[in-house]
């Protein structure tokens, strides 16, 4: 089984309610495993909360006909962008330089 890791830039509601849901759904087929490394640009509290939960969270729909709560466990790592930038010791470098990692590939 192959493992595909997505770099999720932005850790807001859209990521947690959509990207993580679709990523977990992609794992349902069993042919490959999809995981997420999530990056928050400024919300330290959210990073701390998700780290404490090992990246796990629950999506809850509301309203008539809502689906049951869905527990998600596809996020392996949660990081704060500022911490990544400081650890690289490249002051004032543009994001493209900050995020350049040979093992990360951008695919369309």
Structural class: alpha/beta
Low-confidence parts lasting 5 or more residues at pLDDT below 50?
93-101
DSSP strand count:
5
**What is the count of distinct domains?**
1
**Total of helices:** 4
Q: Which of globular, elongated, flat, extended, rod-shaped describes the shape?
A: globular
Query: Element order, helices and strands?
Result: EHEHEEEHH
Strand order of the largest sheet: 1-2-5
Strand content: 25-35%
- How far is the first residue's CA from the last residue's CA? 21 Å
Q: Tell me the helix content.
A: 25-40%
Global mean pLDDT: 78
Major pleated sheet:
3 strands, parallel
Give the radius of gyration: 15 Å
Q: Helices and strands in order, then pairings?
A:
Blueprint (H helix, E strand, L loop, with lengths): L1 E8 L3 H15 L4 E9 L3 H9 L4 E3 L10 E3 L2 E6 H8 L6 H4 L10
Parallel strand pairs: 1-2, 2-5
Antiparallel strand pairs: 3-4
């Amino acid at each position: 089984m192959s493992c595909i890791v997505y770099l999720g830039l932005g850790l807001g509601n859209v990521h947690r309610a959509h990207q993580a849901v679709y990523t977990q759904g992609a794992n349902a087929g069993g042919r490959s495993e999809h995981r997420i490394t999530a990056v928050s640009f400024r919300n330290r509290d959210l990073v701390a909360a998700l780290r404490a939960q090992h990246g796990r969270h629950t999506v809850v729909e509301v309203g008539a006909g809502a689906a049951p709560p869905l527990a998600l466990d596809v996020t392996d790592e949660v990081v704060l962008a500022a911490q990544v930038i400081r650890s690289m010791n490249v002051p004032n470098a543009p994001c493209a330089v900050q995020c350049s990692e040979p093992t990360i590939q951008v695919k369309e």
